[in-house]
Amino acid sequence: MESSKKYKIWIACTLACTLLAMAVPAAAIVYTDPFFHYHAPLGRFAYPINNQRYQNDGITRHFSYDSIITGTSMTENFKKSEADEIFGADFIKVPFSGGSYKEIDSNVRRAFDAGKKLRYVIRCLDYSRLADDKDTYREDMDFPFYLYNNNPFDDVSYLFNKTVLLQQTKAVWDYTAAGNKTTDFDAYSNWNAYYTFGEQTVFGTYTLPEAAQSSRVLTDEERERILGNIRQNVTSLADEHPETVFYYFFPPYSICYWHSQYVSGQTDWCIDVEQTAIEEILKHPNIKLFSFTDHFGLIGNLNNYKDTAHYGEWVNSWMLEWMHEGKHQLTKDNYQDYLDTIRSYYQSYDYESLEEQRQLSGAGA
User: Fold this and answer.
1) pTM greater than 0.85 (yes/no)
2) Closest CA to 209 of 140, 266, 161
3) If you average pLDDT over every residue of the chain, what do you get?
4) What does the DSSP 8-state code read for residue 247?
């Protein structure tokens, strides 16, 4: 009897110690909350904000703001301070590098679900993902769905995660001890200072595809897939929230991107894809749609680019001004002229001269 009693005491103590060993680190994670899963940043800590897919959901749900900048890497160099001043609003920036339309739309929905009253949503619509299936996520990474749902049982992946404790949580403590300040939304994800720009750099970043024997034609199946993507991940949220103004834009990829499309016989296909999206988006009155693909001076000046698509932060600054001023806005009255203009330009551009420049730079050797 005595041994049985001791055994029960031993079991109870072991269980208590085990629970305590689990509870203490979990409590440290909850209190510090490096991914903002439970709360906004605490004033006693300085937080390094540097992990988009693990921190964006918490930023969206728990930070204080009234407007959002979001999208792919095409939005990473936007600055909150500039957007605040130009639009007279209080922005956050939550980019998803390489993100799909589904991924980005889902995050903005989380803002509304959290009770945020949004004035403006500024978002890019990448050409390269227009024809995605509507439920596509970025294919080359494991997405932390447990941070993006309301299932508390999924939180075990956060609370009992050695990496979160020893790396992310400790990083907050170390960052604070070093005297830093929480990363602001000018600096968050901004990569401008880490790259060089210009002709030599851009020409060295890509290889032209083999020349196509015929031009690609947009199929009915592709058209339906584009419409499904746009309706689910672009326009439906605007319909649900007529009180919010959505500023959507097609980012200005460089002339070298269009060179590749031309060589591969995809110029008309790309523009037909864009037309399909434009005609659907323009049906929705609280969406202001912009494209800078007809700003040929910008697109043809490789000093604005670090590769075929990514532009410097000054281009992001220009686009904020242009969108606020209504420049390069597409409407039901002008979109067909816009499409005719870019189709003619990119089909007749002197790509031979561009290729000669590339060869002279040594990149085409």
Assistant:
1) yes
2) 266
3) 92
4) E
